[in-house]
Specification:
Layout: E1 3-6, H1 13-24, E2 27-30, H2 31-40, H3 44-54, H4 61-75, E3 80-83, H5 89-102, E4 108-113, H6 116-125, E5 127-129, E6 135-136, E7 155-156, H7 163-177, H8 179-186, E8 190-194, H9 199-211
Parallel strand pairs: 1-3, 1-4, 2-3, 4-8
Antiparallel strand pairs: 5-6, 5-7
Helix pairs in contact: 2-3, 4-5, 6-7
The structure holds adenosine monophosphate.
Residues 9, 31-32, 35, 52-53, 56-59, 64, 84-85, 87, 91, 160, 169 line the site of adenosine monophosphate (AMP).
Length: 213
């Protein structure tokens, strides 16, 4: 099974992807994490995308497509859950072409729809582990503040989770990513879950939706 997660930043896509990974044995492919890895390793790509990401802008389509394609190929027959990609119509079409070549299909585009005030609250509380990538927030708190329960790594606040950048990212989502909802609706792949609920309830919704697949 291959899934695309859709929804504005702060809807819990990363956390939900990690839940799907654990529950259904699919692999999370997070475009943001792939890019942050490049920045951390100071690669040519990393140096190019770092200033763009700090401002919350979209990095060029060909860069992110390259990283996603490499990851999909690495996974072979293992199913995946795409988190953060595609983010605009061009990327959705590029993804279709790439998957066609790889003889892979998407089963579900799962939309997590969440109100803006809930998103802002969540993003301001979000922290991520520098070492293993685990995400913490309003619903999932670490036992010891600033320290990852999983691996003891340091928790950090993303630079693009600052309030002024959050506002810009939400606007970008509404303009560029929202049209993807119709794109996958027309392809009869779209399913939606209310992202305003408590995380446990969202997980239940995901289980019901994907469990029958
Ligand atoms: P995320 O962790 O998904 O919120 O992504 C963090 C940042 O990485 C975004 O604000 C963009 O700068 C960049 N990014 C992630 N995914 C994409 C994508 N599919 N297309 C362009 N830029 C992306």
């Amino acid at each position: 099974m291959n899934i695309i997660l859709l929804g504005p930043p702060g809807t819990g896509k990363g956390t939900i992807a990690q839940f799907i990974e654990k529950t259904f044995g699919l692999r999370q492919i997070s475009s943001g994490d792939l890019l942050r890895e490049q920045v951390k390793e100071k690669t040519t790509i990393g140096k190019k995308v770092e200033p763009i990401m700090k401002e919350g802008k979209l990095v060029p389509d060909e860069i992110i497509l390259k990283l996603i394609t490499r990851k999909v190929r690495q996974l072979g027959k293992t199913g995946f859950v795409l988190d953060g990609f595609p983010r605009n119509l061009e990327q959705a079409k590029l993804l279709d072409e790439m998957l066609k070549k790889e003889k892979i299909g998407i089963d579900i585009a799962l939309e997590i729809s969440t109100d803006e005030e809930v998103i802002v609250k969540r993003l301001s509380a979000r922290r991520q582990c520098r070492k293993c990538g685990k995400i913490y927030g309003i619903d999932i708190k670490p036992e010891k503040e600033g320290v990852c329960d999983n691996c003891g790594g340091e928790l950090f606040m993303r630079e693009d989770d600052r309030p002024e950048v959050i506002k810009y990212r939400l606007q970008l989502y509404n303009e560029r990513t929202q049209p993807l909802i119709d794109y996958y609706l027309e392809k009869e792949k779209l399913k939606s879950i209310d992202g305003n609920m408590h995380l446990e309830e969202i997980f239940d919704g995901v289980l019901k939706l994907l469990g029958n697949k």
